[in-house]
């Protein structure tokens, strides 16, 4: 047995529409794959034909995980094709970010979504193999 592909991340959100709009800014080709209500709470699958975020409306809940300070996911990385364009987009939208460097990457951009989940946006150097 082997994994075929990484399919989704399930996120609880204070404001499902704000979270959707944030990720739509980063990834304009993403779309609502499915949505509905379960046990009175709204949910949405938002992404593309390979990957999606399962967003859950949990507006009454508070964040308890502190990335890099407790056990849990610290950030989720997405490969992008144009780091310079992404930085310009983030600046135009007033979205705070920071960058880091690494030998294998052209751009490493870090940004937090509306619920404080850190996202890494990576553009690899052309000679770095992703295969």
Question: Can you describe what's shown?
Answer:
There is one protein chain. The protein has helices at residues 16-26, 83-92, and strands spanning 8-13, 31-38, 41-47, 52-57, 75-79, 98-100, 105-112, 118-124. The protein is an alpha/beta fold. The chain folds into two domains: 1-59, 2,3-Dihydroxybiphenyl 1,2-Dioxygenase, domain 1, CATH 3.10.180; 75-131, 2,3-Dihydroxybiphenyl 1,2-Dioxygenase, domain 1, CATH 3.10.180.10. The strands form two sheets. The chain has a four-stranded mixed β-sheet with strand order 1-4-3-2, with helices on one face. It has a four-stranded mixed β-sheet with strand order 5-8-7-6, covered by helices on one side. A hairpin with a 4-residue loop joins strand 3 and strand 4. The mean pLDDT is 93.
Q: How many beta-strand segments?
A: 8
Which residues form runs of ≥5 with pLDDT under 50?
Answer: none
> Proportion of β residues?
35-45%
State the CATH topology of the largest domain: 2,3-Dihydroxybiphenyl 1,2-Dioxygenase, domain 1
CATH architecture title of the largest domain: Roll
Question: Number of domains in the coordinates?
Answer: 2
CATH homology group of the largest domain: 2,3-Dihydroxybiphenyl 1,2-Dioxygenase, domain 1
What characteristic shape results from the CA principal axes?
globular
Tally of helical runs: 2
CATH class of the largest domain equals Alpha Beta
How would you write the strand order of the largest sheet? 1-4-3-2
Query: What is the share of helical residues?
Result: 10-25%
Distance between the termini: 20 Å
Task: Name the quaternary structure.
Answer: single chain
Computed CA radius of gyration, to the nearest angstrom? 16 Å
Broad structural category: alpha/beta
How do the SSEs run, as a string of H and E?
EHEEEEHEEE
> Describe the biggest sheet?
4 strands, mixed
Q: What value does the average pLDDT take?
A: 93
Keywords: Metal-binding
Protein name: VOC family protein
Domain VOC: 5-124
InterPro entries: Fosfomycin_Res_Enzymes, Glyas_Bleomycin-R_OHBP_Dase, Glyas_Fos-R_dOase_dom, VOC_core
